[in-house]
Specification:
The protein is mostly helical. The chain has one domain. Helices cover 85% and strands 0% of the residues. α12 packs antiparallel against α14. The chain starts with a helix and ends with a helix. InterPro entries: Poly_Biosynth_Transport, Polysacc_synth.
Length: 413
């Protein structure tokens, strides 16, 4: 029984994703306590704002390919020539998207926070190389263990060079460059693995390029509203409050993202599996089981928020304990919402509903930030509460629609 379980492709891909996520988030948490103490709240805030800019840029250059390409490739896993055309089409589109994104970054840097030349170079390099990481390919062919290698190597390099180079309060730009170097290494290794798997650049048809644009556009919109809106919150804070406040918010948001990321390996592995099998019963069992498990770390973090912040970031960051508690609640709601999103609706062949739920909740968050701006209510805690409400809206929509659609399917059978 155990041998059968461990040999299942879902188990293998989930295990690879867990390892990848651990290195993706454990590595930063090895250096974050060091960076928060070395840079202080001000320098840490500047670094967090810059990283949020790279996150938004990644959403734009990804254009939803991380979801749309995974879905298309998972349904044609053995067609190497077709997948090679998809890779070429996406890479070509990404080059065009990068030109637009670079222009947008330049505008933001002119009117927002003043960064050093080294920090600006690090931002551009990170955005460029993260655009060609291509996790969607490995997810689609269900060989996530391959890209796990590049992730482990790059994160280890990141940890080492941060400890070697970042020594002073003004070294936030060096910290950003360390991240850029690690991203470059991960990108190069990932693309070497793509070539080793037998894929190459094959000229795609105009029809395929158009298909990728159209199919990805709805995913892009949802990603902009979901990931982009949360990162915009940091950038809005950076323009309205002191860098230290951005640092307090950023510290809690990092913990929130790490908490939520614990569920991503299962969700990402389930997405192509559900698209192929439609086994929604398995999904509900996984959601119920993991929800009970995740209650433990969520409860501990909520009760001991002050202690957690002191331990990880230093005593200066305990001023953000209320923000952390809000983010812990948001994280718990969010990781359930992740399961009830693309994996759940892929099993019903209705991923458009997952997209629409994100667009609605993300639209609410954008609107809330605009209202707070005009009411002069842009504070770290207000932005945190706005993210929590938006996440609750998304989960509510997904649960209601999932119940409605599954009930309809039962009646039609």
């Amino acid at each position: 029984m155990l041998k059968k379980l461990t040999s299942h492709r879902l188990f293998k891909n989930t295990s690879a994703l867990i390892i990848m996520q651990l290195f993706t988030y454990v590595a930063p948490f090895i250096v974050l306590p060091y960076l928060s103490r070395t840079l202080g709240a001000d320098g840490f805030g500047l670094m967090i704002a810059a990283l949020s800019l790279t996150v938004i840029s990644n959403v734009c250059t990804d254009f939803g390919f991380n979801l749309s390409a995974t879905y298309l490739i998972s349904r044609k896993q053995n067609q190497i020539r077709y997948i090679s055309k998809v890779i070429t089409a996406i890479y070509s589109l990404k080059l065009l998207l990068l030109a637009l994104v670079f222009f947008g970054i330049a505008l933001y840097l002119i009117f927002a926070v003043n960064y050093t030349a080294l920090a600006i170079a690090a931002i551009y390099l990170t955005v460029f190389f993260q655009a060609f990481m291509s996790p969607w390919l490995f997810q689609g062919i269900e060989k996530m263990k391959l890209i796990t290698y590049s992730t482990i190597a790059s994160r280890m390099v990141y940890v080492v060079i941060v400890f070697l180079l970042v020594k002073h309060k003004d070294d936030y730009d060096l910290a950003l460059m360390c991240n850029a170097i690690a991203t470059m290494l991960a990108c190069l290794l990932a693309n070497w693995l793509i070539k080793r798997e037998g894929f190459s650049f094959v000229k795609p048809s105009k029809r395929l390029i158009k298909l990728m644009l159209v199919h990805s556009s709805q995913f892009f919109a949802s990603r902009v509203f979901y990931t982009g809106s949360a990162s915009v919150g940091v950038l809005v804070l950076a323009g309205h409050v002191a860098s230290a406040q951005v640092g307090f918010y950023g510290a809690s948001e990092k913990l929130y993202n790490a908490f939520k990321s614990l569920i991503y390996p299962f969700s990402q592995a389930l997405y192509p599996y559900m698209a192929n099998t439609g086994n929604s019963k398995l999904l509900l069992k996984v959601v119920a089981g993991l929800s009970l498990v995740m209650l433990v770390p969520a409860s501990i973090g909520y009760i001991y928020a002050d202690w957690v912040l002191t331990l990880l970031f230093g005593a200066e960051f305990t001023q953000g304990s209320e923000i952390l508690r809000v983010f812990i609640l948001t994280g718990f709601v969010g990781f359930v919402s992740v399961f009830m999103g693309y994996p759940a609706f892929a099993s019903l062949r209705r991923v458009d509903i997952a997209n629409k739920s994100v667009m609605i909740s993300g639209g609410f968050l954008f609107l809330t930030l605009i209202v707070l701006y005009f009411l002069e209510g842009i504070t770290a805690i207000n932005v945190a509460y706005s993210v929590l409400v938006a996440e609750c809206i998304s989960l509510s929509i997904r649960v209601i629609m999932f119940i409605k659609l599954t009930s309809k399917l039962k009646w039609t059978k």
